Amino acid sequence: MSTTRPYPPGDRGPDPDGPAASASPPATTTAGPIRQIRRLHLIGASGAVPRARDFTRQALRDWGWLPAATADQRAAAEDVLLVVSELVTNACLHADGPEELRVSCNAKVLRLEVVDLGTGTPAPRTPHRAGRPGGHGMFIVQRLCLDWGVVRNVDGSGKTVWAELAAPG
Q1: How far is CA 83 from the centre of its chain?
Q2: How do residues 31-79 score in pLDDT, each as one tens digit?
Q3: E strand segments, 36-82
Q4: d(CA 151, CA 37)
Q5: Long-range CB contact pairs, 74-78, < 8 A, 24+
Q6: Which DSSP state fits 27?
Q7: Of the candidates 16, 13, 51, 27, which has an alpha carbon nearest to the alpha carbon of residue 164?
Q8: CA distance linking residue 23 with residue 160, whole number of Å
């Protein structure tokens, strides 16, 4: 499901009477409180995609997703790494590079967030043409994830592209 929401699922946005809203979305997922969150700063980093994959792979090890005990668990971890690659690659190609990767997890959902300063809105190419090179990133994200979307920064500069995947059973 492709979505563009002003705020992540379950969040109604900043309190109009409260302090100024943060530029980053709150650290919550649709499945409940976060068990843990990891952040990787990528501003100006060379090799952002392999760095993001290695960082995420280590988080998956620390959280017990890897080494995988079953084929389903291995597939779930591989899906996470593929989605990280696609989101960070998109930021590199279309948004002057990623600023930060956030990986968070609770018992049911793993959430990936890539922050960039781009103005565009990622979307799967339609119609999707499997035989043509390029343009498959957001189609892959859409197919592998429970949900994904875009949250615009409050100040108008940049966005956070997020995706949620089911934790292995």
Answers
A1: 7
A2: 556 578 999 999 988 999 999 999 999 999 999 999 999 999 999 999 9
A3: 36-41
A4: 18
A5: 76/165, 76/166, 76/167, 76/168, 77/168
A6: S
A7: 27
A8: 9
